Amino acid sequence: MIKRAGFRYRTETIARVAALVIGMVAMFASAVSRAQAQVKTPELAFYGLESGRFEVAALSGPEGAELGALAEQAWAVWRGPFGLPDRWLVGITVRLAPAEGWPPGTHSWRVAAEPGGIVSVWIRARLPGEAGGLPERRRLLAALAEGAMHRQAVFIGVPPERITTPAWLSAGAAEAVLIRQQPSLSDAWQRDTARLATVPGLNSVLMWRMSESSDPQNLRVAAYGVWSWLQADGQRTGAWRRFLADVLGGGDALTALARHYQEMPGRRSPQELELAWQTVCAHLVRVKNVPVLEPSETRRWLEQLDRIVLAEGTGSQDAAFELVDLWDWRKEPSVRTPLADRAALLAANFRQVHPFYRNAAGSLGRAWLALEQGKSTAWRVARQEWKQDKALGLELEVASTRLLHEQEAGEESLVGPR
Length: 418
Fold this sequence. Notes:
- This protein is an alpha/beta fold.
- It has 14 helices and seven strands.
- The protein has helices at 2-38, 62-82, 133-155, 167-181, 184-194, 202-206, 217-234, 239-248, 253-260, 270-286, 295-306, 333-348, 358-373, 376-415, and strands at residues 44-47, 54-59, 92-97, 109-113, 119-124, 307-311, 318-322.
- The strands form two sheets. Strands 1-2-3-5-4 form a five-stranded mixed sheet, covered by helices on one side.
- The radius of gyration is 29 Å and the shape is globular.
- Residues 1-33 and 35-39 have low confidence and may be disordered.
């Protein structure tokens, strides 16, 4: 009996322990299941999809929205300098990759090109504590510029293994977009250049290798000067396009300059090119830029300034809205912050607005102010005036363009065939 009782005791103990283990396993499995149910799958947002330009994929959020907006604005600015079409049959794929998964110690973007025209750009998202604002936009635009140059190089027949995208070209292209967005940055560029103890030599700029650990301001500033100079001198003769194709194909930049810009006086040797660069840079610093955008540039700038990308609700895809229309969202931080920033930007650059759209800029500013202050009547009136003033500005723009074309056609008919 003792043995049987002991056996029965051990059997019951084992059974209770087994039941406890099974119960704990079941509880753990249930907890894991609930935890997995609570973890939401990250949502992707797409910008410019099937546009044939930059096609951006990113996690939903403001950083991806900013990259999408920059990509759209950059294409319009770079069409002329880089020879980009309105759209490619196969666009440039751009992926904004989470910072935590990016290989440490590597460059913050990379570009891959294939002979069939497929170009992909991977850009690391901003790291915690990394500077945002203007420095971040410069970084994103430099990455996009490298992607655009790769795509153009593939188009003109450069083998992928030979494609070269110099740092000065990326930096100059990025600054061109920023200045188009905010014309007052042109004055800032002049001040930064004038403060340099010594303007970097042309060879130093052309041979600059961009690095994550070092971004010399003097080279970045000089890069935009070289970008502006070579385009201005080479647009009419086609020297800029030939020079760009040569450089993208891996050609030496100084040799390409001497070859393609030799029609310009005093450009046949490195010494003459250096003297020309220093002279032009001194002129660019002193020249007083006319603080007025072209009519079409003003219209696009105002429309881009009023455009904002937001998610309509939790779990919703990002969508584009006009900031002036967001009365019901006026108190949301995602609207209040950009509203204040853009109002300040509009006020700072009001002098650059073309006269055709001066009234439109004023009514847009009044509508934003009423939106911020919650004055519904003033908002409705200013919002309506903004739409009417913008339409009137477009009429003046179209009429002016037509008159100029008619005048040019009349002058050609007077001169006769050449």
